[in-house]
């Protein structure tokens, strides 16, 4: 996994070069190829980078690319040292690690294009090989010593991409698409993640029970700790085609041209974009449901980066299942309230509001301003507040049986208190 990336990077879709990414003295530049633009299935990389003959460059492209990369500078620098000959520029990192990047395109150095034409290539991994990786993670957090390791870009937590077929796990080679993401129990830059798999699994299951579209989680046990396995929202299985197919996807943050990575977008802008898409009012209500659940479970990380959109060649787009839901309640319980208030991952009224400020009055106003029918915001709050207490206990039993886990108990305690507050706000 070592070696730098020189020259231009090909943007590949369905074995066709759709465009080129270069990095000159003025920064990165993206150009769609005319052959791709003239094709019937031409789909833009992003709503913020539409199909055009002229090159995309400057701040808009730089912001979009930043969302493909790890948000922590230290992780990017470590990736650069191990995978891109020390070059931490976005183009270098994407060229080194972008063969299985999120979305419908592969990013391949020009000299590696022949690999994209070899067809699906995979190798079954024994469970022992996966355990070997997990055992080595404390001293090798990026897995760079494992030649089969397929790293994924973006986010904070170390993770690897796998292919699951007929109950077996495998590695994908060259430009073959993976199907699942395995999040690994490794602390990053002082962030303790040993309970992250159970935490995220519980939050995803609870959110699903409360009507939010999310990816399906599965917890796997390793000697190094619990890991979380989830299907990739940007991959689909087509019985008429070999392997796993890529889906044209980007995050809400990328579609809105937000940046740099981690910078919140306004909830009004997100709702406006969804209202103009193929999902219309349904997608708007789903995003508002996500906001209420973020308040319930203390999910400051539920933001525009974790809300993906599926893009179609006809210009339509729809909201896909959310991912990356991990509660801050366990840490918040240890820290105490103090001056620290977890905040919503979206901006409302030009500021990031504290999660415990979300209530029926605020959500109703936001819903009305987005053009939704009167009472829709309050109805969402009522539904979540009334159903949460029973569902919290049910999901705990399904996940842990009769056992108790401190992190899950902290989430439940916080959520029960928030459910009471949300219910009380309905009387205002």
TrEMBL record:
Its EC number is 2.7.11.1. Residues 152-297 form the HipA-like C-terminal domain. Pfam families: Couple_hipA, HipA_C. GO terms for molecular function: protein serine/threonine kinase activity. InterPro entries: HipA-like_C, HipA_N1, HipA_Ser/Thr_kinase. It comes from Natronocella acetinitrilica. This is Serine/threonine-protein kinase HipA. Residues 12-105 form the HipA N-terminal subdomain domain. The keyword Kinase applies. NCBIfam families: couple_hipA.
